């Protein structure tokens, strides 16, 4: 987000580690949500995990994000996260 000047000035990134109760003891996971003051607990945009709670490893590994110049997470950010943030600005 920092590399996008428009978003960097208007959003706050919060990273939480090991806070999804449904995933305790079930391995690694990444959940991404775009929060709004009017809806503080939205459904995640994606759930990367081993198939628990509606998640899938495919949301990160089966979409071609590895071809992005900034790697998988850069591709995910450009394809999913930034458009969701822009839609709320």
What do these coordinates show?
- The chain has 89 residues and is mainly alpha-helical.
- The protein contains three helices and two strands.
- The longest helix has 18 residues.
Secondary structure blueprint with pairings:
Layout: H1 5-10, E1 30-32, E2 46-48, H2 58-61, H3 71-88
Antiparallel strand pairs: 1-2
Class computed from helices, strands and strand pairing: mainly alpha
Task: Calculate Rg over CA atoms.
Answer: 14 Å
Number of strands: 2
Strand order of the largest sheet: 1-2
Largest sheet: 2 strands, antiparallel
- The helix/strand series, from N terminus to C terminus, equals HEEHH
Helical amount among residues, as a percent range?
A: 25-40%
Summarize the structure.
The protein is mainly alpha-helical. It has helices at residues 5-10, 58-61, 71-88; strands at 30-32, 46-48.
What features would you highlight for this structure?
7% strand; 89 residues; mainly alpha; 31% helix; 2 strands
């Amino acid at each position: 987000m920092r590399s996008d000047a428009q978003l960097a000035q208007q959003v706050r990134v919060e990273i939480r580690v090991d806070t999804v109760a449904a995933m305790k003891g079930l391995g690694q996971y990444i959940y991404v949500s775009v929060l709004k003051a009017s809806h503080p607990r939205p459904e995640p945009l994606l759930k990367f995990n081993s198939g628990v709670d509606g998640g899938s490893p495919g949301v990160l590994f089966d979409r071609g994000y590895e071809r992005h110049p900034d790697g998988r997470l850069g591709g995910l950010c450009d394809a999913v996260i930034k458009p969701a943030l822009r839609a709320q600005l």
